[in-house]
Amino acid sequence: MAKPVSIEVWNPSGKYRVVSTKPMPGTRWINLLIEQDCRVEICTQKKTILSVEDIIALIGDKCDGVIGQLTEDWGETLFSALSRAGGKAFSNMAVGYNNVDVDAANKYGVAVGNTPGVLTETTAELAASLSLSAARRIVEADEFMRAGLYDGWLPNLFVGNLLKGQTVGVIGAGRIGSAYARMMVEGFKMNLIYYDLYQATRLEKFVTAYGQFLKANGEQPVTWKRASSMEEVLREADVISLHPILDKTTYHLVNKNSLAIMKKEAVLVNCSRGPVIDEVALVEHLKQNPMFRVGLDVFEDEPYMKPGLADLKNAVVVPHIASASKWTREGMATLAALNVLGKIKGYPVWSNPNQVEPFLNENAPPPAASPSIVNSKALGLPVSRL
Ligand SMILES: NC(=O)c1ccc[n+]([C@@H]2O[C@H](COP(=O)([O-])OP(=O)(O)OC[C@H]3O[C@@H](n4cnc5c(N)ncnc54)[C@H](O)[C@@H]3O)[C@@H](O)[C@H]2O)c1
């Protein structure tokens, strides 16, 4: 029998019971649920990652919907518990949903929401920050300064890589990968090489137009290339950022062999999911190649790092904060709450999950729709005509 978990309750007399497994930023998401007759229960347990048993206890005997987190294992056990409690809606507070077994959700008729449209720029900005931090050795230099080791300017002190004119490689040029590519091309005048299963036409057009603009101003134009393999990107790029989804095809995409073909002074950034890199192989590669640098937001066995990584000066590591801007996190909370609310109320699904601005306008009520349900087709849910 699972132990009871501590909760905070809003609007105790609400008709629908909605559980959030974590406190989330802002209050708009709570108010939107309360206004629609929901009793909102927020888990306040002082434990970062809830177990399946903890979540079963939270779901209890009657639960209409749950807002959960990417650290939780949403599979057969939880979806069957939610279904038994009368629940028909779950939303991850994340765009990625590799922690969710969508087939299991389909089996129990539970809608699965995610939160695209608000993470793109924030995550791309963190990838750009990690690229710069690694290329210019910001963290190492900061530690040096704080340790009182700086005793004057020196020609060889913390020499790093100039980005301008170098090649940025993007693996997975979807929403975030494309936004990152634009930042690096426009901000630092880097040439682009990318690999994706699909052509990133808008991104290509952007780089072409920017190249023409530079040329017209007498500057060296930037260029783009769509690689026919990931290896081509790894071989040619000076800075490589990983932005694919995590699935069977991208697990350990970067491994011992792929690291071996990268330039010895390349910078590798990962803001996607930890298991996209074989972290043990990466640690070994960093040890052997001190001029090779990485910026990591995600790790293979979060919250842990593989042995040795924390000691390496050529690694910049941050704790999965790529989406951590106030606007984004409040937006994610709002979209997750509206995904669950929409299903409870029988609303249709929003037709374009990438265009969610109407849901984020604080001065108007949100549209009567679920912003993004990933299994809407499988469940045969109607699509909004708005
Ligand atoms: N670190 C964070 O906090 C954070 C924040 C947001 C998103 N993410 C991760 O980033 C991922 C991407 O987000 P997005 O919104 O850009 O998703 P997206 O679906 O728009 O883009 C993913 C891209 O990866 C491509 N892809 C899939 N398999 C591939 C393969 N084998 N090789 C190359 N490309 C492949 C797809 O075609 C697609 O273009 C999410 O799934 C999530 O896991 C992490």
Commentary on this structure:
- The chain has helices at residues 28-35, 52-59, 76-84, 102-107, 120-135, 138-146, 175-188, 201-216, 230-236, 256-260, 279-288, 326-345, 357-360, 376-379, and strands spanning 7-10, 16-20, 38-43, 65-68, 89-92, 111-113, 167-171, 191-195, 224-226, 239-242, 267-270, 293-296, 315-317.
- Strands 9-8-7-10-11-12-13 form a seven-stranded parallel β-sheet, with helices on both faces. A six-stranded mixed β-sheet has the order 1-3-2-4-5-6.
- The N and C termini lie far apart (46 Å).
- The model has no long low-confidence stretch (mean pLDDT 97).
- By secondary structure, the protein is α/β, with parallel strands linked by helices.
- The chain folds into two domains: 7-118 and 324-379, 3-Layer(aba) Sandwich (Rossmann fold); 120-317, NAD(P)-binding Rossmann-like Domain (Rossmann fold).
- The protein contains 14 helices and 13 strands.
- Helix 1 runs parallel beside helix 12 (326-345), helix 5 packs across helix 7 (175-188) and helix 7 (175-188) runs parallel beside helix 8.
- The chain is 35% helix and 14% strand.
- The longest helix has 20 residues, at 326-345.
- Residues 95-96, 116, 119, 123, 171-177, 195-198, 243-246, 249-250, 271-273, 297-298, 320, 322-323 line the site of nicotinamide-adenine-dinucleotide.
- Pfam families: 2-Hacid_dh (PF00389), 2-Hacid_dh_C (PF02826).
- GO terms for molecular function: glyoxylate reductase (NADPH) activity; hydroxypyruvate reductase (NADH) activity; NAD binding.
- One of its GO terms (cellular component) is peroxisome.
